[in-house]
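User: For my dataset I need records formatted as: sequence, then structure tokens, nothing else. Please produce one.
Assistant:
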Amino acid sequence: MAKSKAKAAAAEPKSKAEKGAESSAKGRAQAAAPKKGKEAWDTGEIGGIVSAVEQMLNEFMSAHVDDDSAMTGRERLRLFGAGVRNYGFIEKAWDIVRENPQFAPSQFDVAQFGADIESFDMFRQLYFLLEKFLQVVNEAMLTRSDALFREALRVYNNLREMSRGRVPGAEPLYRALLQFFRRRRTAEMVEGEEPTIKQLERDFNKLIHGHADGEIEVVSEKPRVSGGVRKVVDKVQTGRAVVKETAQAEIDK
């Protein structure tokens, strides 16, 4: 009798509440389990890739880059690049001297020229591969940064609601995050900082169109043919005077 009752109890269908509890427990277990596929990349695996790339970079630099002859930007501009047109010119010249060696310059090693082109092709393939790798890493980083920023927004929105509800301690934390959404004007960043030409043009346009209160005062000092100085006082939306002196030539009056 006891066994039959136990079998009958086991055969009874489960209630909706029991099914919901089981599904919730299963969902939590799946979330806690290690993810497979694209999500399986953890910090340790990424760190291994970084170490391997760093090692390859050091080996490449020691083999192909001279530490004592680091080029500046101006020196790079003086060098011929290998764009589509330039590379086509190189290949065409190689085809000509390979098929017509009698037209090669004196003391010109045609075989070495071909070997150098073959080596350069390997550099180009490596460059394109690294460019593709950089693009893939950038896309992966972008998707993760988007997810992280949205999580940070959840923290920000929660602190904002708690600050509006006057929860003790929430106001300073909310303001600490709020400063990242405020655009500080260049002239307001440092007391006494000179306004830039772009800042003056922006303030002038605001005054002309009636979008701001204040004034911009231009005082001409030492109006001479050379070495003239003009003083510009910008009082637009700053609550204080910001002075900028600019040298400018002007005819004597």
